[in-house]
Amino acid sequence: MGKLIYSMITSLDGYAEAAEGDLGTDAGDEEVHTFVGDLFRPVGTYLYGRRMYETMVYWETAHTEPDQPPHILQYARDWQAARKVVYSTTLESVSSARTRIERSFDPDAVRKLKAESDHDLTVDGPTLAAQAIRAGLVDEYHLFMTSTVVGGGKRFFPDGVRLDLELVEQRAFASGLIYARYRTR
């Protein structure tokens, strides 16, 4: 049985998307990117909303760009090897292999997917993750916190949900990014 992991870069004040501008991240930092690549290499399925999929589909062709460093090439290979499920009512087609579209998020279907999976799954994007969190599907939360306070936007955790979590791992990067992994109790 696979675990469902929710992971995103967040501002120090808990926003996964800033209302204005970026989160002040150093996600392109080689140390951070290599860590993220190693962390998510075992993931077998990515669950995306349309907007997150449109951001991540870059990895389908990233390896074709000249002079890519080894950690970028490895991440692209790992992403391409995983299955992707895109939840969208508007997306007509996908532009990556091993990808299918679902028109609505069905918690029971995701439970079945977890139960049948030999690998972990991730849910990516705060809107889709909120549905998984409210359905009690998320097993782990991986936060990459920047040193920026953005004051508003889309929150990492949805409003109106109480979670009791256990900190199981943490790491600070030279860039100032803090990684914290929590498990659902």
TrEMBL record:
GO molecular function: 5-amino-6-(5-phosphoribosylamino)uracil reductase activity
Pfam families with a match to the protein in the record: RibD_C (PF01872)
SUPFAM superfamilies linked to this entry: Dihydrofolate reductase-like
Bacterial bifunctional deaminase-reductase C-terminal domain ranges (all copies): 3-178
InterPro entries according to UniProt: DHFR-like_dom_sf, RibDG_C, Riboflavin_Biosynth_HTPR
GO biological process, one term: riboflavin biosynthetic process
Name of this chain's protein: Dihydrofolate reductase
Organism encoding this protein: Streptomyces indicus
Organism lineage: Bacteria, Bacillati, Actinomycetota, Actinomycetes, Kitasatosporales
